[in-house]
Every structure is written in C-alpha cells, then in structure tokens.
# Entry
Amino acid sequence: MPTTAWEVFANCERAVLAGVPTHRTADDKEFHFQRWVEQRIREAGYEVPMTGRNTYPDFPVTGVAESYEVKGITVGSRENDFDCNSALPSGQHGGANVLYVFGRYEGSAAGENPNVLDIVIAHGSFLNAGGGYQADNKSMRVLGSYGDILLRDRKMYVSYTPYRLLRACASTARWSCPKIGRTDPQLAGCRWGPPSGQSTTRYSLRTTPTCPRTRSLPRSNRTRTPERRTTSRSGARPKATTDRS
# Structure
C-alpha cells in the first residue's frame, strides 16, 4: 500500500536538525505546531485540504488513504498523556490509516519562533490496537430555569503519549509504525508487544444515568420578562414597561 509516512518523517527530521522553528502569534498560541507539520507534508509533495481546526484527523492526505493527527507539546509541560476529545485513539478512521505526529517545542521564553526539539510519528494502533469501548455522546436541552440550556453528556479519554511509552524520545526523531510501504534501516523504529488480553466493553460509574430529574419552579421563573424602555417623540422621559410572554 502506498504511504506518505516515510517522506513526511524524513522532512520532519531534517527540519528539526536544521532548526526550522514554528511561528506562533499572540492570538494563536495553540496551532503553530500544526502549521509546522502541514508545511512538512506539503514539502514532501502531498496535498492536504483546508479543514477546520477541530477536525479529526487534522490532515487527511489527498489521494492517499492516510491522515495525520498532530499533538504539539510545550517542553516541560504535559508530556506523558493527552486528551483524546470524545474518541479513543485509533489506527483507522474513515477507511484511512491515522498517523499521530507528536512533537515537543520550546516554551514561551523562545518568543514567537520556538524551535521543535524532537518528533515522534506513531501509527494510531501503537496507542490503541483496537476500537474498544466507545461512549454515546448525548445531549439534551433541559437545564436552567427555562429548561433551554444544553447538557452535553460527553466522555473524555486520556491516552499515553510516545514520550511515556517509549524510551529516549527526547531530542530525537522516532518512528513507530507497522510495516507499511517499505522498510528503511536508517529510520529509528521500534516494535511493540501484543495488546492486553482484556478489553473493556462496558463500565459503570457511581453517577446517575443521563436521565433528567425535574422540580417545579416558582411561576415567576417560568418565563422571561425583560424590561423594555420606550421614548416618546415629544422628548418625554423614557417609560419603563415589562414584556410578558
């Protein structure tokens, strides 16, 4: 199966060694590393469509059944795990392989152009070999005195990063993927053992199910009664009235 991973990995490694920095502005401190990775993908000769910042995966590759999900980490911060945003990490999504790009970069002392210190590209199956438990993310508009505030029953997942799972990732470029496309002895890789013999398929928390319980509210709290002020054309003082619905 054709893969973009080797060229993208090599581009990332060269950029780290050459000291190619990211560029973060005062009003956009979160996505500078994503843009840095996007540039490496395009330099390898591949196109990625313009997607929303919260799209998963971040960069589906045009014409190839592969996508990249980017996780940037400020050095010295939260390096061992990351939030997975309502879905377990996986090596497959929408019929395409998912490759996770992890990278550590310099902190705020580096200003607007922090250097990327190291890179790990890992196939999603390294983080989670199977699908496992998937929660139903439900929502209902039931909260507040008017009953129109949305409750989102959303599960969050936290997975280990390669910086926790592998040794000596700091200040290196590491590649952790199954055999796809071809092998290259110059690329630093690793093998991982079989998954755990057990997988959670359901669980129970000490909370009530997502089923709203209601109580009666005072009559004055059942409808909104905003105050409205009107001014006459004669220039008289405004008169306050109350809209009742």
Remarks:
- The longest helix spans residues 5-18.
- Confidence is low (pLDDT under 50) at residues 181-194, 203-208.
